[in-house]
Design a protein that fits this description.
The complex is a heterotrimer of chains A (271), B (293) and C (418). Chain A is mainly α and 271 residues long. Helix content of chain A is 80%, strand content 0%. The chains are: A mainly alpha (271), B mainly alpha (293), C alpha/beta (418).
Chain lengths: 271, 293, 418
C-alpha cells in the first residue's frame, strides 16, 4: 500500500468517526445513569440498563406517537403510490396532446414551492372543513408527494416499451385494467424508490404535523419529542434514550434495506 | 384503432388524472392563490374583514430590519453550508470510488445521517454543544469553546453550519459517487499519458465531467438550506436575540404568533421567488460548463 | 375493468370518507366522547406544570358528573396555538386567559367569549383581581390563581457564608459580590431560553412603570431612548448579569432548573410555577430553599413582587355546552383550596389559605399589597410583543449595549401601534 492510499484511508476513517460520534454518544448516554454521565461523558456504560428507555416510553407517550407515525406514514404511502403512478401513466402516455403536456408542468411546478407559502392559507382552509387532524395531514402528504412522484414516474415511463400495453388495449382491456395488470407491476423499481423517499420524508417531517395536528392524541413521534424535550432536556440520559427511541425504527430499517434505500434516494435525486 | 375504443381510452386516461387534479386544486392551487390574495391584505387572522392594501406589505417588508436580518442570515447560512457540504461530499465521494476495501460499508455509513430526523439530530447536537464541547474546550484550553457555542452570537452560526454539513453531505456523497462512476477509466488513462497529475487532473478532467452532478447537488442543497427550520427550532429558537432567525421561522412567527397573515404570506412568496430565481441561475450557469463526452 | 373501477372508486371514496368522519368530530381525542349522552368539553390549558393537578380535579368532577367528559389539552407553545385556533374559528370550550392583556381585550370585543359577569361564582373571587377582567362593564373571564415572581435562594449557601436576605438593591449587590468572592456562583440563569429572559428583567420594568405609563406608551406619547428610568432598569439588568454562571447564555430553562435544584448556584429569579418542577428534581427542596422579594431599589417599601393572574378561565361564546362548561368553572372556583395546595400558587379566590412552605417567603409582601401586575399585560400587541421583547432582551444580554436595546424597544413598541 502506498502513501497516497494510506491518506485516503485515514481521510475516510476520520470522516466515518465524525459521522459515528454523535450516534455513539446517543447510544451510550441512553444506557447510562446520571452518575455515570457525571463521571465521564464519553466512557461506555458499566451495565446496560433499560430504565431510561422505560421511563422515556412512559413520559413521551411513545407507543401512541409510534402508532400515529406508523399509521400516517402507512396510509399516505399506499395512496401516494397508487395515485402517483396512475396520474403519471395518464400523463406519460399522452405527451402528444397539449393538455397533458401542460398537466405535466402543472404537477411538477410544486417542486419549487416551499410549504411556508401554502401554510397560512392552508391552515384556515383545513380548519374550515374540520380537518386539522391526521386525516387532513395524510391528504396533504398525498397531495404534495405528487410533485416529485409524477416527475419520477413520468421519466421512468420513457423506459417502458409501449408494445405490450398497446396489444392489451387493442384486445379491449381498457385503460384501468391495462394499467393495473400490465403497467403497475413493471414500475416496481421506481415504486420502491418513490416509497422510500416518501417514507423518509413523512416519518421525519416536523413542520407539517406541527401546524396541522391540533390535538395531542394525533401527534407523531417528532412532535411528541418536541413537546416533551422542554421537560427533561436536563436529564441527559432520559433525553438521549428518547432520542434513540425515535431514531430506532429508522435505524433498524436502514440496516436491513440499506442498499435499496441508498439506490432509491440517489435515483430520486438524480432524475 | 377503432373509434369507440379510442374514445373510451381517452376517457380512461382522463379519469386516472382526476383524483390528482382534485387534490392539487384543493390543497395547492387554491391556497396558493389565496396566499397571493392574503399577501395583498392586512388581515390579522381575527377580524372578520380583510382590508385590501395593495403591494404595501411587499414594500414595507424591504424596509423591515427584522426581515432583512433574517434574509441575510438565511442566505449566509445557505451559501456557506452549500459550499462546505459540496466540497466535503466531492472529496469523500472521490475517496470512496477510488479502489478501497469495505467500499459498501463506508458508503452505508456516510449515507446514514440522511435518513435521520433533522429535529432529533438538532436535539442531539444541542446536548453536545451544551455538555461535550465546553468540556473539550476546557481540556484543550480554547476559550471560545468553554461556553455553549449556541449561546454566543459570534459562534452560533458556525455551530449550525457544522450540524448542517454533518447531515446534508450524506446525500450529496451518494450523488457524486454515482456521477464519478460514470467517468470511463480511459479518460484518466489518456490524461496520465498527457502527464496530468493531482489537483490539475481533478480540475481539468474530473470536475468538468461531473458538472451534471454538481448542478443537482447545488440546487438540492441550496433549496434545502434556504428553507432551514427544524435545526433552528431544535437548537436556538432563532436566538441569541435574532442571530439565527431564519426566514422560515420568521414566517411562522409572523403568521402564528403575530397574527400578521398578510405580511407573513408576502414574506413566504418572496422566499419562493428567490428559490426559483436562484435555482434557474444555477441551472443556467452550470449548463454552460457542461462537457459532453 | 370492474376491478379498476372499484379501485378508483375506493380511491375517491376514501378521500371523501376521510373528510366526513373527521368533519363530525373536529377535535375529538380519546374516543370516549362518542358515547351517547356524554358531553365532551375541551379544556385548553397552557401550563404544562399543572397537567397533573388538573387531571386530579377533572377526575373528581367527572365522578360527580358522569355525563360530562372534560378533555384537557396541553400543547407546546400553547398561547400561539390558541391564537391560531381563534383565527381559524376552532375555539376550545374552556381556555386560559389573562385579564387586561391585548389578546383578551380583542377577543372580548369580538364577541368570542361568554359573558360570566352575573355568575354566582364571580363573587367568591377577590374583587380587586377579578375586576381586571372588566371590559365594557362586563366580565368575560374568572381568575383562579395568581403567580408570583421573586428570588429563590439556597438556604445552605446563604448560611454557610453568613448571608442574610437582602432588603435593598445595595444589599443585594453586596450579597452577589460576597458570594462571588467566596467562589460561589451567586446567580443561576437559563438565558438560552427566550422565555426566561423576561422573567428576570421585567422585575425592573414592573417596579419603574405603572399602568398609566403603558397607556401613554401605547398611545405613542413616550420615548424609551433617553428616558432615565429605562436607562436605570437596563443598567441594573447588566449589573445582575455579571453574577450569573459563566454559561448563562448557553443554559436553557430545564438545565437552569437542574443546576439550581442541585445547589450549583445561590439564587434563581423565577416564578412560583417552577416549584413543582424543582421539587421533582430535589426531594428536600422545601427544607433547603426559600423565597424572597426581588429588591429592585434601595427603598424596601418601593420594591414590588410581580404577580398576575396565572390561571384565569374564559369560555367560548359559541360552545355547544355552556351550562356544563360553567359548571366545571364553578367547580374549579369551589375547589380553589385543593388547587392551591396541589399547584403551589397564590389563590385569587377569597378565603384560600397558602400552605406551601416555600411560598411563605413572598406572602408578607403580597399581603401588604406591594405587588405589580406583569407589565407586558398592558402592552398593545399582547403575546406577540411579549415574545419580541424576550428576543430583544436576549439580544441585549449578548451585546450589552443599553443605547441599542432601548432603540430596539422603541421601534418594537412602535411597530405594534395601530
Amino acid at each position: 500500500m502506498n502513501l497516497k492510499k494510506l491518506g485516503v484511508y485515514a481521510f475516510i476513517i476520520t470522516g466515518g468517526l465524525a459521522i459515528l460520534f454523535p450516534l455513539y454518544l446517543t447510544v451510550i448516554t441512553a444506557f447510562k445513569t446520571p452518575e455515570e454521565t457525571r463521571v465521564s461523558f464519553l466512557a461506555l456504560p458499566e451495565s446496560f440498563s433499560f430504565a431510561n428507555f422505560i421511563q422515556a416510553i412512559e413520559m413521551t407517550n411513545y407507543v401512541q406517537g409510534f402508532m400515529n407515525s406508523f399509521m400516517i406514514t402507512g396510509i399516505s404511502i399506499v395512496f401516494i403510490i397508487i395515485l402517483g403512478s396512475s396520474v403519471s401513466y395518464s400523463i406519460a402516455r399522452n405527451q402528444d396532446k397539449k393538455f397533458y403536456r401542460v398537466m405535466y408542468y402543472f404537477f411538477v411546478s410544486g417542486l419549487f414551492v416551499p410549504f411556508q407559502v401554502l401554510m397560512l392559507p392552508l391552515i384556515q382552509q383545513l380548519s374550515a372543513i374540520g380537518m386539522l387532524n391526521k386525516w387532513g395531514l395524510i391528504l396533504l402528504y398525498i397531495t404534495y408527494s405528487l410533485f416529485q412522484s409524477v416527475f419520477l414516474f413520468v421519466a421512468y415511463f420513457k423506459s417502458i416499451p409501449r408494445e405490450l400495453e398497446d396489444a392489451a388495449l387493442i384486445d379491449g382491456c381498457g385503460v384501468f385494467r391495462t394499467f393495473w395488470h400490465i403497467i403497475f407491476p413493471m414500475l416496481k423499481p421506481m415504486t420502491v424508490t418513490v416509497a422510500i423517499l416518501n417514507i423518509i420524508w413523512i416519518w421525519n417531517d416536523f413542520l407539517m404535523p406541527l401546524v396541522v395536528l391540533n390535538n395531542s392524541s394525533d401527534w407523531t413521534l417528532p412532535l411528541m419529542q418536541y413537546v416533551f424535550e422542554s421537560q427533561y432536556s436536563a436529564n441527559y440520559n432520559l433525553a438521549f434514550a428518547s432520542y434513540l427511541m425515535v431514531l430506532m425504527p429508522v435505524i433498524v430499517v436502514y440496516l436491513f434495506l440499506q442498499r435499496h434505500i441508498i439506490g432509491g434516494v440517489s435515483d430520486g435525486a438524480v432524475k | 384503432m377503432n373509434q369507440n375504443i379510442y374514445r373510451s381510452m381517452s376517457r380512461g386516461y382522463f379519469i386516472l388524472l382526476i383524483p390528482g387534479l382534485i387534490l392539487l386544486a384543493f390543497f395547492y392551487v387554491y391556497p396558493l392563490l389565496n396566499g397571493v390574495y392574503l399577501s395583498l391584505t392586512s388581515w390579522d387572522g381575527v377580524s372578520r374583514t380583510k382590508d385590501f392594501v395593495g403591494f404595501s406589505n411587499y414594500i414595507n417588508i424591504f424596509s423591515d430590519s427584522r426581515f432583512l436580518n433574517s434574509l441575510s442570515f438565511t442566505f449566509k447560512y445557505a451559501i456557506v453550508s452549500t459550499i462546505l457540504s459540496n466540497i466535503i461530499a466531492i472529496s469523500v465521494a472521490m475517496a470512496l470510488v477510488s479502489k478501497i476495501k469495505f467500499q459498501n460499508f463506508f458508503r452505508g455509513l456516510y449515507f446514514f445521517p440522511a435518513v435521520l430526523s433533522m429535529l432529533i439530530i438538532g436535539f442531539i447536537w444541542k446536548q453536545i454543544y451544551f455538555r461535550f464541547i465546553p468540556y473539550l474546550g476546557e481540556q484543550l484550553n480554547i476559550d471560545v469553546l468553554q461556553t455553549n457555542v449556541l449561546g454566543n452570537q459570534d459562534t452560533v452560526f458556525w455551530a449550525l453550519v457544522v450540524v448542517t454539513v454533518w447531515q446534508a453531505s450524506a446525500i450529496l456523497i451518494i450523488i457524486y459517487m454515482a456521477g464519478l462512476q460514470t467517468i470511463p477509466q480511459e479518460v484518466y488513462e489518456s490524461a496520465d499519458i498527457d502527464g496530468a497529475r493531482g489537483l490539475k487532473k481533478f480540475f481539468t478532467i474530473t470536475l468538468p465531467l461531473i458538472v451534471p452532478s454538481i448542478t443537482i447537488c447545488l440546487i438540492l442543497a441550496m433549496k434545502q438550506h434556504l428553507m432551514v427550520y427544524d435545526y433552528i427550532v431544535a437548537m436556538t429558537g432563532g436566538g441569541p436575540g435574532f442571530a439565527t432567525e431564519s426566514v422560515t421561522l420568521l414566517i411562522y412567527n409572523l403568521g402564528f404568533l403575530n397574527n400578521r397573515f398578510g405580511y407573513g404570506t408576502a414574506a413566504a412568496l418572496l422566499l419562493f421567488l428567490m428559490i426559483v430565481i436562484i435555482s434557474f441561475i444555477q441551472i443556467y450557469f452550470l449548463r454552460k460548463k457542461e462537457v459532453q463526452l | 375493468m370492474k376491478k379498476s373501477l372499484i379501485l378508483s372508486a375506493i380511491l375517491t371514496a376514501s378521500l371523501l370518507v376521510g373528510c366526513n368522519t373527521s368533519g363530525e368530530s373536529p377535535s375529538n381525542g380519546s374516543g370516549e366522547g362518542s358515547n351517547d349522552g356524554v358531553k365532551t368539553i375541551e379544556f385548553f390549558q397552557v401550563k404544562s406544570e399543572a397537567v397533573q393537578t388538573f387531571n386530579q380535579l377533572i377526575e373528581k368532577f367527572e365522578d360527580d358528573n358522569p355525563t360530562i367528559n372534560i378533555e384537557q389539552n396541553t400543547v407546546p407553545d400553547g398561547m400561539t396555538v390558541l391564537k391560531t385556533r381563534f383565527s381559524t374559528g376552532d375555539i376550545p370550550d374552556i381556555f386560559i386567559t389573562y385579564p387586561v392583556e391585548a389578546d383578551y381585550v380583542l377577543r372580548a370585543n369580538n364577541d368570542y367569549l361568554l359573558d360570566v359577569t352575573d355568575e354566582p361564582f364571580i363573587d367568591k373571587v377577590n374583587g380587586e383581581i377579578q375586576d381586571r377582567y372588566i371590559e365594557n362593564d362586563r366580565m368575560y373571564g374568572v381568575a383562579l390563581s395568581l403567580n408570583a415572581n421573586g428570588v429563590l435562594y439556597n438556604k445552605a449557601i446563604f448560611e454557610e457564608h453568613g448571608i442574610d436576605i437582602p432588603q435593598t438593591w445595595d444589599e443585594f449587590m453586596a450579597v452577589n459580590e460576597a458570594l462571588e468572592a467566596a467562589g460561589q456562583t451567586p446567580v443561576i440563569m437559563g438565558n438560552q431560553d427566550l422565555g426566561q429572559t423576561s422573567i428576570f428583567n421585567l422585575n425592573f420594568v414592573a417596579q419603574q412603570f405603572d399602568p398609566d405609563y403603558w397607556e401613554s406608551l401605547n398611545a405613542g406619547n413616550e420615548t424609551i431612548v433617553g428616558d432615565p428610568r429605562w436607562e436605570e432598569a437596563a443598567q441594573k439588568m447588566l449589573d445582575v448579569l455579571q453574577f450569573a454562571q459563566r454559561d448563562h447564555m448557553g443554559t436553557d430553562y430545564d438545565q437552569g432548573n437542574a443546576m439550581f435544584a442541585n445547589g450549583e448556584g445561590a439564587m434563581y429569579f423565577m416564578g412560583a410555577w417552577v416549584l413543582p418542577t424543582l421539587r421533582d428534581m430535589n426531594p428536600n427542596f422545601d427544607e433547603e430553599f426559600g423565597y424572597f422579594t426581588f429588591p429592585q431599589t434601595n427603598n424596601p417599601d418601593e420594591n414590588v413582587t410581580i404577580s398576575g393572574v396565572d390561571v384565569g378561565l374564559s369560555i367560548a361564546a359559541d360552545t355547544d355546552y355552556p351550562e356544563e362548561a360553567l359548571k366545571f368553572v364553578e367547580f374549579l372556583v369551589d375547589e380553589a383550596q385543593t388547587f392551591a395546595d396541589l399547584d403551589g400558587s397564590f389563590s385569587a379566590v377569597e378565603g384560600v389559605e397558602i400552605k406551601d412552605p416555600v411560598l411563605q417567603g413572598l406572602l408578607p409582601h403580597i399581603e401588604e399589597g406591594k405587588v405589580a401586575n406583569w407589565p407586558n399585560h398592558y402592552w398593545a400587541g399582547g403575546t406577540a410583543v411579549e415574545a419580541d421583547f424576550r428576543s430583544h432582551s436576549q439580544n441585549f444580554f449578548s451585546h450589552q449595549n443599553i443605547e441599542q436595546y432601548l432603540q430596539d424597544l422603541d421601534s418594537m413598541f412602535a411597530s405594534y401601534r395601530q
